[in-house]
Write a structure and sequence with these properties.
about 290 residues; alpha+beta; Uridine Diphospho-n-acetylenolpyruvylglucosamine Reductase, domain 2; Uridine Diphospho-n-acetylenolpyruvylglucosamine Reductase, domain 3; Enolase-like, domain 1; five-stranded antiparallel beta sheet; four-stranded antiparallel beta sheet; 13 helices; 14 strands
Length: about 290
């Protein structure tokens, strides 16, 4: 099937992009297009006006200051994973980006697009949720900051409005020592869609775990924050977490219990629950090893 005719717009600034979006009642934004163009070709999405964000320089920057890191929404996954700022400050996000699709896809697909699709198997959403990220949504009339946990509300459903552009992803910096890890299982080594994933972001004071965010991916309509696993780890001392696998195994079991997988071509629900337990234990252990080593 061929892509139907449409009007193509290439704004050079965010203001111009927002103006075109407001004027085009059925205008669709495109960044990398790795999902959208397939949907248009299949006839799933109808388009009269396509607005590319590739020329909007404001969406291609990483802002690193004392309080937060802001990632431009049009940066590709390769841009993010190769950024020295991200590798230093948010290494688990760099790891997650490296697991998205193939090298060719990572050169086109954007981190903002990965979030805006709201796909349950998106690789960057779970680790960004674990980092407690927020998304910046901008329209001609306003700008709002929405916690990512409130942005993705169902499979392929988000709270972005038709007149808004996601302009950035913001992660606040913690004053406490933070370790993080992203673990994914796919059916092949490269270019695989997640069967299950687990992300951990754990914060410590000098002795104890003061907070733990465990987020399960591809095992529910949206990434699932395992409140039970996080609560179980919080308050434990670093020494006891490192000394005994029992705590890690229990956290893995709690995350598995919190997941809501379905059976499909990539695996049964029971298989996914088993994977969640294994991946969660691995993510926590690798996070702790960052301190131990």
């Amino acid at each position: 099937m061929y892509i139907p005719d449409f009007n193509y717009h290439k704004p050079k600034s965010l203001l111009e992009a927002l103006s075109i979006l407001k004027e085009c009642e059925k205008g669709i934004l495109i960044a990398g297009g790795t999902d959208l163009l397939v949907e248009i070709k299949k006839g799933v999405r109808k388009v009269t006006d396509l607005i590319t964000l590739s020329g909007v320089s404001e969406l291609l920057e990483i802002d690193n200051n004392d309080d937060f890191i802001k990632i431009g929404s049009s940066l590709t996954h390769n841009d993010v994973m190769n950024s020295n700022i991200i590798k230093s400050e948010l290494p688990a996000l760099a790891e997650a980006c490296s697991k998205v699709g193939s090298h060719q896809i990572r050169n086109s697909a954007t981190i903002g697009g990965n979030i805006c699709t709201g796909a349950s198997c998106a690789d960057t959403a779970p680790i960004l949720l674990a980092y407690e990220a927020s998304v910046q949504l901008t329209s001609m009339d306003s700008e709002r900051l929405v916690p990512l946990k409130d942005f993705i509300i169902n499979h392929h459903v988000t709270t972005i409005r038709s007149d808004e552009i996601m302009t950035g992803i913001i992660i606040n910096k913690s004053k406490h020592r933070t370790v993080a890890c992203f673990e994914k299982f796919g059916l092949r080594e490269a270019a695989s869609i997640s069967v299950a994933s687990s992300s951990s972001v754990i914060r410590f004071d000098s002795e104890n775990c003061i907070s733990a965010n465990i987020v399960v991916g591809a095992c529910g309509p949206i990434p699932i924050i395992s409140e039970n696993a996080g609560s179980f780890l919080s308050g434990k001392s670093l020494k006891e977490l490192i000394a005994s696998d029992d705590f890690l195994v229990r956290a893995g079991e709690l995350a598995s219990n919190d997941s809501k997988p379905i059976s499909d071509i990539r695996g049964t629900a029971d298989y996914r629950r088993h994977l969640v337990k294994i991946l969660t234990v691995a993510a926590i252990r690798k996070s702790l090893n960052q301190i131990a080593n």
